[in-house]
Amino acid sequence: MIVTRFAPSPNGSLHLGHAYSAIVSHDLARDAGGRFLLRIEDIDGARSRPELADEFRADLEWLGLEWEEVPAQSTRLASYERAAARLVEMGLLYPCTCTRAEIEALEPRMGPQGFIYPGTCKGRNWDPDKPAAMRLDVMAAMEKAGSLVWEDAITGEQSADPREFGDVVLVRKDAPASYHLAATLDDAADGVTLVTRGMDLFHATHIHRLLQALLDLPVPRWHHHDLLLDTDGQKLAKRRSSPSLADRRISGEDGKELAEMLRMGQMPGGISLSRYPHGVT
Ligand code: GLU
Ligand code: ZN
């Protein structure tokens, strides 16, 4: 059975891009007689505003979607801690006390989502007085896991190459897991068989596939969908021009009609759908 999910982070209101993402995920499950899950990803440190979860539910209902809600990430911290401890035991995580400014001062290479950590703290003695994140030693992890492939429903088989991300953070200074670790563990725990999300997270899947291999997790398929772009060709963002779903709902717009338009690829004024996020920030 196909199980998909929509996994918003409550750090701002949802916008049209989220509506599109939720609809794609919902319809893929519905059309296959499967299940569509909602998971609130509320461990984003100080940026997280769990009270937004109610707004999200109202938005999805307004769009005419039906879902099953699974427990929010904040209730699953122990499972993240267990997985991180296992990776530490395998010798694959190391503490990193660098601040963002310190890393940027080294003028690191840029990857698909920001800089690639230059490995400053790898093998270095760690000052326990400083707050530390835990990073994955990607080269060591890849050696352990061997060559890995994953399947995207649109672009086909991919060979997992997480090196372009560098040694990613798996345990944050302010939370027991980063997005990569939490989402990968939760998708497995929730029995998700088809991970649907935007093309902007395509590269992250290389890391997730590696984590699945290291932690003996089941391997789903992925469906990375097109992105909605603003009039200036940028990915729609919560902070930019487009009104939030909540604004549209409260102003009396018909959400089911909007959902139908998005399904047909008819985007409201100036917004376009793009296959690949080239040049998208
Ligand atoms: N919480 C993540 C976000 O809102 C979910 C990404 C994903 O679907 O994996 O960007
Ligand atoms: Zn460091």
UniProtKB/TrEMBL annotation:
Gene expressing this chain: gluQRS
Keyword Plastid set for record: no
EC number: 6.1.1.-
Pfam families: tRNA-synt_1c (PF00749)
Transmembrane segments annotated in the record for this chain: none
Organism: Aurantiacibacter sediminis
Family note: Belongs to the class-I aminoacyl-tRNA synthetase family.
Domain Glutamyl/glutaminyl-tRNA synthetase class Ib catalytic: 2-258
Protein name stated in the entry: tRNA glutamyl-Q(34) synthetase GluQRS
UniProt keyword annotations, A-Z: Aminoacyl-tRNA synthetase, ATP-binding, Ligase, Metal-binding, Nucleotide-binding, Protein biosynthesis, Zinc
InterPro entries documented for this protein: aa-tRNA-synth_I_CS, Glu/Gln-tRNA-synth, Glu/Gln-tRNA-synth_Ib_cat-dom, GluQ/Sye, Rossmann-like_a/b/a_fold
Gene3D superfamilies, per the entry: HUPs
GO molecular-function terms, A-Z: ligase activity
